[in-house]
Amino acid sequence: MLVSVANLKPKRHKLVTSEMMEAGIMPQLFTGGACNVQGFNGPERNSGRDPLARWLDQQGYSYFDPQIHPDTHGRDYVWGIDGPQEKIAREQAQLRVYEITDTTISAITALEISDDARHNRPTIVWFNRGKNFAPLGLGTVDDLNKNLVLQKTIGKMAYSHLLAYIKAGMQLRNELPLFLSDCQYVVFVDSFDDLIKAVGQLLQAINR
Question: Helices marked H in the chain — which ranges?
Answer without folding.
Answer: 18-22, 49-59, 70-73, 79-92, 107-118, 141-146, 148-154, 156-179, 192-206
